[in-house]
Amino acid sequence: MPVNDTGRKYFTDVVKGVNTFENSNAMQYNFTTITPAIAATTVEPMGIPLIYNETAGEWQIVADTNIAELGGSGSGLPNDGFVAIIVGTAFGAGFNNKDVDLATEDVTVLFRGANNTGVVRDGIDFTLATLSAPNQANYEKALEAVGIMVIDNAEVVSPTYTS
Question: Which of 26, 76, 77, 114 has the fewest CB atoms within 10 Å, i.e. the most exposed one?
């Protein structure tokens, strides 16, 4: 039986610099599972940018139509955060073994950055977001406001050796 490569994203294609459980401050509170309220959309659960729409009282894919909700509250997250990035299925951060239906399935999100947590700009999947370039920049600023750095991938990695 042939095995087909689905070309799924890895966790590290989206998230960089997250603390391990053994970090010096013993903090690992960046991830939680939420239930988005998005019309039937089956997607790969990695890198999709969400916004909490306080007016509607639900998590939505960020778009030009709801970007005015930046800075809202009442999301139910520990930091009352209003932006998040999907980083896995309901099984936890990094689980990307199947596509999920955002209308019926829970997802795991990165909602706050504790000690040097960041996302790669290229890892944020704005394909569903219908977001203009200026609003993408505003969304990135909102991520940084909740402690999630937005960085570019390194173009060249040059190993060095010492003798």
Answer: 26
pTM here? 0.83
Q: Which CATH class is domain 30-151?
A: mainly beta
Kindly list the domain boundaries of the chain, sorted by start residue.
30-151
- In this predicted model, what pLDDT tens digit does every residue of 127-152 receive, in sequence order? 888 889 999 999 999 998 888 889 88
Contact between 34 and 68 under an 8 Å Cβ cutoff? The reply is: no
Q: What is the pLDDT of residue 56?
A: 87
Cα–Cα dist 75/19, whole Å: 24
Work out the average pLDDT over 6-27. Answer: 70
Q: Is 126 helix (H, G, I), strand (E, B) or coil?
A: helix
Q: Order of strands across the sheet with 107-110?
A: 31-34, 107-110, 83-89, 49-53, 58-61
Residue among 76, 80, 78, 101 nearest 90 (CA):
101
User: How many H helices and E strands in the chain?
Assistant: 1, 10
